[in-house]
Amino acid sequence: QVLLEESGGGLVQAGSSLRLSCAASGPTFHSYAMGWFRQAAPGKEREIVAAITWSSGTTYYADDVKGRFAISKVNANHTVYLQMNNLKLEDTAVYYCGAPGFWRPIRDRPEDTIYDDWGQGTQVTVSS
Predict the structure, then answer these.
(1) What one-character DSSP code corresponds to residue 52?
(2) DSSP one-letter code for 108
(3) Which residues are within 8 A (CB) of 107 and not within 5 positions of it... i.e. 6 or more apart?
(4) Nearest to 114 by CA among 22, 40, 48, 44
(5) Distance between CA atoms of 34 and 50, rounded to whole angstroms?
(6) Which of 2, 16, 59, 115 is 20–30 Å from 97 (CA)?
């Protein structure tokens, strides 16, 4: 079973930075991409924030984080990072790391798939 472990969340002031990490492990981990999602409140939709493919490093960013967030990867240890700069109040959410199941077909774009495996989530709270 795939295991995704997030870390790096916390309480920061608006305008600050945070870096989230997600380490993937497990004998069946052969996903072609990983992504960061967030859920602002229980019952609200979990939305994609950024994603990246392992092989080519193709990235995707949601419009409201472009220019502020950066996703990166270290293939050797199956770790993906999300550098979040100039954080805004509306970035407050639980952030989840996700991966498409290994059976999903490989696509050119990391957002063009269904994400099946999830980490436990890490809280990011931005205060004024």
Answers:
(1) E
(2) S
(3) 32, 33, 113
(4) 48
(5) 9
(6) 16
